[in-house]
Amino acid sequence: MAITDELAQLREQTLARIAEADTSAALESVRVAVLGKAGTLTGYLRGMGKVAKEERAVVGKTVNEVRNVVEEALEARKKKLAAAEMEAAIDASAVDVTLPGRAQQMGTRHLINAITDEVSETFLGLGYTVVHGPEVETDYYNFEALNAPKDHPSRSMQDTFYVRDLSGEASSVRGESDVLLRTQTSGVQVHVMEDQKPPIYIIAPGKVYRRDVADPSHLPQFTQIEGLVIDKGISFGDLKGTLDYFCKQMFGPDRKTRFRAHYFPFTEPSAEADVSCGVCGGTGHLHDGERCRMCKGTGWLEILGCGMVDPNVLTMSGIDPEEYSGFAFGVGVERVACLKYNVPDLRMLLEGDMRFLRQF
Ligand code: DAH
User: Which residue's CA lies nearest to atom 5 of ligand 1?
Assistant: First the structure.
């Protein structure tokens, strides 16, 4: 075959391979095979010296033509492939902005905190101030200054966690320690009366501790909100009006309150307040006549302790009972939460079960 025919054949083959190359890498290997150092066309260029003189001009021209055509075809194909590859890369890294976002799990306020805030807000609205007292308390503030006699049952080891100092001498023998985890927030009353002159209108929310085994109606740690009002001419009527308002705010305007005589060492007279049962509407039985289990058929739910501050307590804290009188109350937050939302077991509040907690 004449060299020019060989070159024409090489040209066609090369153009076909260029057209077939579907990646930049495949195209590059075609270029190397034809135009590289050991390439087929390069071979013809190098071999020009061996071509017969009379053919040299024609063959040289043909080789150059083929090289130009191949180079042009390579260049055009290269651009095309680069554009396609760029497009594919963009497609591959594309973000679908229409995909729905991943839902973030929102935390919720714990029911105990929510109720504490709700009670606080009710009293803030009445002009009260929120104060806090220490959880580790002395016997004086938790019992003595609250008129709890030395033999009062609430002081027994059965009820109180005593704190022992283990660092030095056994200064505190079992049950005789002066330091304890407060069993009630009532001690804050004493701190406030020592620090502030009347008029006093405060509430004091906080944790309290008792040596109880957790069961549906007891927790070894729970939350109380203490209230204290000291002013001139404060009567039991003020106490009733205030707590009735509080119950209606907390449980709804249809709920009734009643006060039953009770005993607390630091108030005289003392009472327990009940709110009418929300499950049976205060009737004690359900529509089908069945006894209401929430209030055990009584129609009432006990919600707090209260009373007129005992003159002894005022005197011990430096307030003249001839000039001032006052009332106090203590309410259990977990109990209010359970009554408000018909939760049958106090322990459910502390189990951290998200299915329960998310309901509020
Ligand atoms: N400290 C009482 C208790 O834990 C509750 C209480 C009753 C508080 C009467 C008061 C009150 O302020 O006046 O059972």
Answer: 330
Task: Quickly list DSSP for 220-268.
Answer: SEEEEEEEEEEETT--HHHHHHHHHHHHHHHH-TT--EEEEEEEETTEE
* Tens digits of residue pLDDT in 62-110: 999 999 999 999 999 999 999 999 999 998 998 888 999 888 888 888 9
Instruction: For residue 137, list its beta bridge partners.
Output: 180
Rounded CA gap, 66 and 182, in Å?
101
CA of 138 to the centre of ligand 1 (A): 17
Ligand 1, atom 12, lies closest to the CA of: 329
C-alpha 65: how far from its chain's center? 78
85: in domain: yes
Ligand 1 center from residue 336 Cα (angstroms) = 15
Cβ burial, residue 166 (10 Å; 0-12/13-18/19+): exposed
* pLDDT tens per residue, range 305-322: 999 999 999 999 999 999
- Cα 244 to Cα 255: distance, rounded to the nearest angstrom: 9
Ligand 1: residue of 123, 217, 266, 314 to mutate (most ligand atoms within 8 A of CB) is: 266
Q: Is 330 in the pocket of ligand 1 (CB under 6 A)?
A: yes
Distance 329 CA to ligand 1 centre (A): 6
188 and 295 both lie in a single domain: yes
Give the number of domains in the chain.
Answer: 2
- Ligand 1 atom showing the smallest separation from residue 189 Cα: 12
Q: 41 with 67: CB under 8 angstroms?
A: yes
Domain that holds residue 12: 3-93
Task: Say how far apart CA 240 and CA 251 lie, in whole Å.
Answer: 16
Please give, one letter per residue, the 3-state secondary structure of 71-128: HHHHHHHHHHHHHHHHHHHHHHCCCCCCCCCCCCCCCCCCHHHHHHHHHHHHHHCCCC
Identity at 339, one-letter amino acid code: L
Residues 344 and 293 in one domain: yes
Which secondary structure element, helix H or strand E, spans residue 163, and what is its range?
none
CATH, residue 227: 3.30.930.10
Ligand 1 site, residue 63, Cβ cutoff 6 A: no
Q: Of 67, 93, 119, which residue sits at a domain end? A: 93
- Report the distance separating Cα 303 and Cα 258, nearest Å: 10
